[in-house]
Amino acid sequence: MSTYGTLFRVTTYGESHCASVGAIIDGCPPGLQLSAEDIQIQLNRRRPGQSDLTTPRNEKDAVQLQSGIEQGVTLGTPIGLFIRNEDQRPHDYSETDLYPRPSHADYTYLEKYGIKASSGGGRSSARETIGRVAAGAIAEKYLRLAHRVEIVAFVSSVGKIHLPTTVESTNEEGDEAAEPLSQEFRNLLSTVTRSTVDQHPTRCPHPETAERMKQRIIRAKDASDSIGGTVTCVVRNLPPGLGEPVFDKLEALLAHAMLSIPATKGFEIGSGFRGTEVPGSQHNDAFVQREDGSLGTQTNWSGGIQGGISNGEDVYFRVAFKPPATISKAQTTAKYDGESGTLAARGRHDPCVVPRAVPIVEAMTAIVLMDALLVQKSRAAAASLLPPITTLPPTMVMPQKARESGRVE
Ligand SMILES: Cc1cc2nc3c(=O)[nH]c(=O)nc-3n(C[C@H](O)[C@H](O)[C@H](O)COP(=O)(O)O)c2cc1C
Known about the structure:
Layout: E1 3-4, E2 9-13, E3 20-26, H1 36-46, E4 63-65, E5 69-70, E6 73-74, E7 79-84, H2 106-113, H3 129-147, E8 150-158, E9 161-162, H4 183-191, H5 194-197, H6 207-222, E10 229-236, H7 250-259, E11 264-269, H8 280-283, E12 287-289, E13 295-297, E14 305-306, E15 309-310, E16 315-321, E17 331-334, E18 340-343, H9 354-384, H10 399-405
Antiparallel strand pairs: 1-2, 2-3, 3-7, 4-7, 5-6, 8-9, 8-10, 10-16, 11-16, 12-13, 14-15, 17-18
Helix pairs in contact: 1-3, 1-9, 3-9, 7-9
This protein binds flavin mononucleotide.
Flavin mononucleotide is lined by residues 55, 104-105, 121, 124-126, 129, 261-263, 322, 324-326, 349-350, 353, 356-357, 360.
């Protein structure tokens, strides 16, 4: 269905060539100062036509706040967000009317519904993600004001061109593989900002790599082809305790949200697949006491989540995006009626989606974290209404926090 979330519920609507796209957000706390500009900033980063690396479809994607806000403050009631589709060109797709596009959603939508939008990707188009980005900007504003949470995503690879993330293994036969992610990459995770990410049209914050990525995308475009890539996202200042311990582990919720973005093919958190190459003695995140007396970890191969619950360290993960399916290079494939033919798709398409996927990844991250925060806060608020218990053995409570909350003497 088109709704995500338990307490912060986001419903998106719209197709590629209908009158408008948007979202309804239910469960946003009242009293949040919110302007159209707070949302527009992220919509502008997602817009098509930002550079010669993206589709030339010309959309302003100007958001209109329809409900749930008065005097620039949320009312706690559903927030309606409306964005007009202005540059529809259904006729661009006349050739693909005959063919289900290979690796797109035309065939599966028809199988599922028995009917589909007459042109373009319909609901499978990345136009749908506008509602997510708008909703994510609201979630993000709350998280920032309430907990100083920072969410920054960036392009970490295009084709085979990667940011310097790993250290070459010195001993591939033994257990002495290098650290899963280089110190340089870890420094980047703790310092990267949206303004450095936006300095290059690829949204890769490493200038030399960014330039090589740009050339790779241009090469794909010039060949009427496309290319994939990865987006890495880091979340700083996330409070501990978010995420549920079994089916709704925080990393499972993030994986679900990320893999719901069109064109995604993979998700890894923390040390990810490279973490499998080192022994536990290297991979364990030893605890240390922080200046404020709380426990932190010396390393963060867990990616800020243990047992499905945030531990207060930075959360970081990587999402894989495939090369977009619609290419104007001729492909031999079959028509809807089964006859073999050659499809060279017309229309306006992204040769590589990752530069525009960056704000979408940030938005889905914010939506997941906002929902998880509201779930945890409601549990804690309900627990706080109970009379304190002073008889619990010390092994059942966190010493410092328990003292603060008055639960042990
Ligand atoms: C920002 C963004 C832009 C996209 N642009 C295109 C595009 O121009 N052409 C295309 O074929 N797919 C594009 N896609 C991907 C399709 O929407 C997606 O591949 C399609 O819905 C099929 O879904 P699937 O790849 O998840 O199986 C884009 C995805 C994103 C996130």
